[in-house]
Amino acid sequence: MAQAAVEWRRFRLSTVEETAVAAGEGALAEAPKAAEGATAYIVREEALAAEASRLARILESGGVEVLGSTAGGGEPVKSLGWVERLWLSMLEAGVERSTTVYIMGGGALLDAAGFAASTFMRGLPTVNIPSTTLAAFDAAVGGKTGVNLVGKNMVGTFHNPRAVIVEPGIVAGQPGEGYRDGFAELVKHVALSGERELAASLLIQALDRRPGPLARLALWSLGYKMQVVARDPREGGLRRILNLGHTIGHALEAASLYTLSHGKSVSIGLAGELELSRRLAGLPRREAEEVLGMLSTIGLPLEPPPGLAREAAGLVGLDKKREGGGVIMPILERLGRPRLSRVPVETVSRLMVELWGGG
Ligand SMILES: NC(=O)c1ccc[n+]([C@@H]2O[C@H](COP(=O)([O-])OP(=O)(O)OC[C@H]3O[C@@H](n4cnc5c(N)ncnc54)[C@H](O)[C@@H]3O)[C@@H](O)[C@H]2O)c1
Fold first, then answer.
1. Helix (H) or strand (E) holding 12
2. 349 half-sphere exposure, CB direction, 13 A CA radius
């Protein structure tokens, strides 16, 4: 019997642009198919030297010449200095406009190298190979690239990857708590879509790092995000529903000076914003509890560490989503039924203090 094959899904963004997503054990072997021209450049996590060598061998044997590679990873790469060094390395390696840049990494490396590729020679095609759960469930698609400048993600572009290749063995190798933290974005997609069966049935196995369930969840999660992105590629409106959990999440992340991980911040943010949805839009308690139950199963927090909420309450909406005294944020009437709403900043901050600010 043949092994479960790698599954491909294609998402059209415009008449000329699409992102294809391949997921499953052995997906890396599909890499040459995603090349636009005859040459490639690889950007990879420091920790993934062996996997990147395998990628290079696969590309070469598929007729794609690998011109060079650069290693890096984590938040420090999201700087203009790092991007400039990458540009120079690509120049030196002889990268041309038709060279495809393969980026094997977590969300930070995908953001930074994606930005570098999107601006080098006015834009090179990219292929994302996520190496963290956050990237495999969320950041690998959607086309947002960028680096930090004073604030997080202040400089960036929209540049959709030609393809995303989810090789579950690579994601499963992510060490530490970050592996579980990335599941917060999957739960966000469950709440927004209302589709809880697949995630509920595969969650425990994926948490155990089993490749098949992990690949299926990634394909579903990236697919959900792409359906939203395809309807609003530049975040003019609808796409903002993907910010569920992030208004409160970003405030907590910033108040902790980024010591609270993005995933944990989003998990607590989801808990707070589901309560807001109950109050403002009548989200049934049972449905909110289903989502909270999923976060608890994963081992994600539903409350911030003591003392953080009061400080975070003062930072609500200080990011890009604040408009005219209110924050535009998604509110759920039911699971699977989000709508964008302008919520006064005070409503969100008061809720945070009420829920978590005692003592
Ligand atoms: N563009 C988007 O749509 C989007 C969406 C959400 C988040 N983000 C960005 O993603 C970033 C966070 O991404 P993240 O949570 O993936 O963390 P990360 O990319 O910072 O990776 C976490 C750490 O793990 C290392 N690492 C990554 N994969 C590994 C592996 N397989 N084995 C060993 N080590 C590995 C990294 O070098 C880093 O030190 C933030 O900068 C955030 O702004 C972007």
1. strand 7-12
2. 17
Q: Is the CB of 178 under 6 A from ligand 1?
A: yes
Distance (angstroms) between ligand 1 centre and the Cα of 1 equals 36
Is the pTM higher than 0.90? The answer reads: yes
Pairing of strands 144-149, 151-158: antiparallel
- Ligand 1, closest atom to CA 133? 16
CA distance 56 to 40: 9
Q: Is the CB of 69 under 6 A from ligand 1?
A: no
CB 83 within 8 Å of CB 59 = no
Q: In what order do the strands lie in the sheet with 39-45?
A: 7-12, 18-23, 163-166, 126-130, 100-105, 39-45, 65-72
Q: What is the pLDDT of residues 259-312, one digit of tens each?
A: 999 999 999 999 999 999 999 999 999 999 999 999 999 999 999 999 999 999
Find the 95 Cα to ligand 1 centroid distance in Å.
25
Give me the pLDDT at residue 325, please.
77
Top mutation candidate among 19, 77, 78, 132 for ligand 1, by most atoms within 8 Å of CB: 132
φ/ψ of residue 103, rounded to 5: -115, 115
The ranges of the chain with pLDDT < 70 are 1-4, 319-323, 358-359
Q: Residue 146: which residues within 8 A CB-CB, separation 6 or more? A: 78, 111, 112, 115, 153, 154, 155, 156, 157
pLDDT number for residue 172: 98
pLDDT of residue 1: 44
Residues paired with 10 in a beta bridge: 20
pLDDT at 215: 98
Domains of the chain are 7-173+209-231 (3.40.50.1970), 238-356 (1.20.1090.10)
Is 241 close to ligand 1, i.e. is its CB under 6 Å away? no
111 C-beta closer than 6 A to ligand 1: yes
